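Checklist before submission:
- one chain only
- standard amino acids only
- sequence pasted in full

Submission:
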Amino acid sequence: MNKLFLFTLFTVFTHTIMAQEKIVQTAGRNQLGEFAPKFAELNDDVLFGEVWSRTDKLGLRDRSLVTITSLISQGITDSSLTFHLQSAKNNGITRTEIAEIITHIGFYAGWPKAWAAFRLAKDVWAEETAGDDAQAAFQREMIFPIGEPNTAFAKYFIGNSYIARVSSEQVPIANVTFEPRCRNNWHIHHATKGGGQMLIGVAGRGWYQEEGKPAQEILPGTVIHIPAGVKHWHGAAADSWFAHLAFEISGENASNEWLEPVTDEQYDKLK
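Returned file contents:
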């Protein structure tokens, strides 16, 4: 058994240093500081302090994917894999994705290894089973599909969101679904002419807010017009799944600027 992975059972703290996430951990020193100080140093300061922290080269989500693939391929399915599965979940890998990832690994690394990994993954993503039932019930409320996990923009969302492309011709339209409490970061649609976005509520209950203005409730049929250059956010209410159609308004030199998250303190003021 590779002892290095056993010493990664710790709480990972991250903070931003010049736009790069820094991983800080002390498991090596806590568990082996007196017995093997050099090993502890390599574990804490090199493996995590340097390698895992090079997020400008490879993001945490991708590093989690590489790590769990490596562990499963070696047949390491103990508590170290549980920790890295939990980290993968925290880094944005969904239950649907981990099921597909382990299935794929099974064909290359061996079916028994995949079975062993699934036993651990089911526990890590267990609470999402109830969420899947709620998601299925929500899908029955609306005509548009929920779609696939919105992984491409997951780092700009708090909580899980899903996207289904409704149209890519004439006017690009997507149905965007948010789980309860999910919301995107503050952001601005830029354009030198035209541009912006329009939202139409489809199902559930959500919120839209422009900077400096009260939040506006979005219900099925609510239409929100967002001019270019306006800082805003939108997402689900705390007690409801929510979906809206997003219409991309054509414009010259259009771009999207993602800004800071909507904090829990800001969000929890909404009723």
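Reviewer check: Residues 133-267 form a domain with the Jelly Rolls fold (CATH 2.60.120.10).
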